[in-house]
């Protein structure tokens, strides 16, 4: 039986330039959903998997983007992407949570906490926020993790779950090692761990895009080639469970 927990992180540039490349996805395999860090559904998804709309930052709390999220029929909504690095205080985030995000819950949607980075600033920001929304906590704990040590990544996820009891959505994770063998081993170790961990609801490896996003992420961890085809790593995530050595 296939365990469907893998969220495809589908960059907006794919929708703009190569939308048909989504047809490479094995929708009968472990891919569970699609996210693009935005409020709008990629038209090329064509209802083949659930979409995860995101209130990425404060602009998505008003105007047509907020309307798209409010009127969406998708069941899970993400709230804020690394707010601690984007000038959003826990106090402001908690106020918007109470004023707006809970309206979505009233419409039957489940809510993901802000997904913070795994450094001390991220952990402290999240602790402050969770204290402020203890009267109406998130349905899911959103986490990010970038590093090179798979054991350390697993320990971080376990520690955060011990602190916060919600099911976990790892909305971004990847190795930042520049050695492909190490990247592959990290990816396989974490995918297999998360597939077999009942308190992890869903996870997304960064990222399915033709170009490397920035100097922090590893070119060796790319899930898409410059021509839009899937890399070996993406083919493994797309089809294999467990993920096996190449």
Features:
three-stranded parallel beta sheet, single chain, globular, 7 helices
Structure in words:
It is a single chain. With 246 residues, this protein is an alpha/beta fold. The protein is 34% helix and 16% strand. The protein is built from 7 helices and 8 strands; from the N terminus they run E-H-E-E-H-E-H-E-H-E-H-E-H-E-H. It has a 3-stranded parallel beta sheet with strand order 3-4-5, covered by helices on one side. Strand 6 (141-147), helix 5 and strand 7 form a beta-alpha-beta unit. The two termini are 22 Å apart. The model has no long low-confidence stretch (mean pLDDT 97).
What's the topology here?
Layout: E1 6-9, H1 12-17, E2 31-35, E3 54-55, H2 63-71, E4 76-79, H3 90-106, E5 110-112, H4 120-132, E6 141-147, H5 150-163, E7 168-175, H6 180-195, E8 200-205, H7 232-239
Parallel strand pairs: 1-2, 3-4, 4-5, 6-7, 7-8
Helix pairs in contact: 3-4
Short recap of the structure:
The protein is of the alpha/beta class and 246 residues long. Helices cover 34% and strands 16% of the residues.
